[in-house]
Write a structure and sequence with these properties.
The chain has two domains: about 110 residues, Trna Endonuclease, Chain: A, domain 1, CATH 3.40.1350; about 110 residues, Winged helix-like DNA-binding domain superfamily/Winged helix DNA-binding domain (Arc Repressor Mutant, subunit A). Helix content is about 40%, strand content about 20%. The protein is elongated and about 85 Å long. By secondary structure, it is of the alpha/beta class. The strands form two sheets. A six-stranded mixed β-sheet has the order 1-2-3-4-5-6, with helices on both faces. α5 packs across α6 and α5 packs across α8. The chain is built from nine helices and eight strands.
């Protein structure tokens, strides 16, 4: 059951911490919830939002100037479809990196709210906590090196990107457009693409058609692909060294 206002999260959190011996008060010096425990010197501080966002994270970091016992609290509901609202493990790891506690509150129509602590303040992950996955890092490096230029605008969404694979497929298509029906070994020699045979066989973009054993031609989709990326292809042709007369 989705809450309409973040203030609806206050009562469940107040009850949760009062059961654990805290005296709780709301809105103390701009802090959403503040509590003191008779056995602790540091105040408990909880900042609340309906869903996890950057302002909440920044609030939590700011509150660490007042106490080391700082929690971030958000509602947990399946109705929230935002990109980050279901990535609880990622959010928890982020809070751990910053030394913040993280709490979710699940509201129900017929039973009391469920308060869950995902991590405690001070549950630090080591600074370089994220292990580098060597295979992924190698793929990143390979993709970067295999691209002949910078053909995409950073931050683009919903557009077809020029990948290293697409670039190689275009170079194969260029050779087929100029030479007509050809064998993979000839396409490889003319295009300079070592994986030409594999690209032809996989035919990921449906640009190629095998007309007989070891013979390929360009399809209408391939012709369209060459037109679609004509501005890039023109740049390749202009950059190619001209033969000496």
């Amino acid at each position: 059951m989705a809450v309409k206002h973040e203030t609806e999260l206050y009562a469940p959190l107040k009850a949760f911490f009062e059961e654990r011996g805290y005296e709780i008060k709301g809105e103390v010096r701009h802090c959403d919830l503040v509590g003191f425990h008779p056995e602790q010197d540091q105040p408990l501080i909880v900042e609340m939002k309906k869903s996890f966002n950057l302002p909440l994270l920044l609030q939590g970091v700011e509150r660490q100037k007042l106490s080391s016992e700082v929690y971030l609290a958000v509602e947990r509901t399946r109705a929230k479809k935002g990109a980050h609202n279901q990535r609880w493990s990622d959010i928890t790891n982020l809070c751990r990196r910053l030394g913040l506690g993280f709490i979710t509150i699940t509201q129900y129509k017929t039973k009391p709210p469920f308060v869950e602590i995902h991590c405690l303040p001070g549950d630090h992950l080591p600074a370089p906590s994220q292990r580098i996955v060597k295979t992924r890092a190698a793929r990143l490096q390979y993709e970067f090196k295999e691209r002949s230029g910078d053909y995409n605008i950073g931050g683009s969404h919903g557009t077809k990107l020029m990948t290293a694979y697409r670039e190689k497929a275009l170079r194969v298509a260029m050779v087929l457009q100029e030479g007509g029906e050809m064998a993979p070994k000839d396409i490889k020699a003319l295009s300079g693409i070592g994986q030409a045979a594999t690209i032809l066989q996989k035919n990921y973009y449906h640009w190629f058609r095998r007309v007989s054993r070891g013979r390929y031609v360009l399809t209408s989709e391939g012709e369209h692909g060459l037109k679609q990326y004509g501005h890039i292809i023109d740049g390749w042709r202009n950059a190619a060294p001209t033969a000496e007369k």
